[in-house]
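Sequence in, structure out.
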Amino acid sequence: MSKNKGLVIELTSLLDVILIMLFWVMMVSSDKADKAEQKAKEKVVAANAAAAVQIDEANSRADEEIQKAQEAAQKQVDELREEYSQYEEFASTVEGFQNGEMLSISITYVDSQELLSFTHKGEQISSVALTTYSNIEYEIRRVLDTLPNKDGIILAAFIYDGNTALYRDVAAVRKALESLRKDYTGIYFAYINTSGKS
């Protein structure tokens, strides 16, 4: 029997091939990992940018809503202040009325002459003769314009005696007063017939 001295196999070239393939796999895997990491970073950046845009839009909408709410609240405050101011003015006017500060417009007779007299705070401020050609509206407007609160609330009373005053004069004064309501929106008239007739 002959002894087998063994088989010598050259592994160098095979190892070289295996190592080359191993390096190639590692490089490909590393490249894929780098690309995946790059894509992940890009996605994170894009997501952050989208989130920042959404946050800016949400903040902008919230600011607009806050601005609208503030404007609505300010409008309500202004309306309440104006309403309170009107009530305050009305209360002041009523208090003045109770103290005799009403404007009185009356038809009187002096020496058989018919006069339209104006009294404010108990003092006569004007008097004009009533004739067919009298411009009653002009005279009343002239007196109203002399009042200190002509643009505010004015309480006035038209006083006449239905037994002695001529119907045409009473009708003319009433017509003038009603016409003046368009220009003096804060004026309130009472019609007082001292004879007791309606």
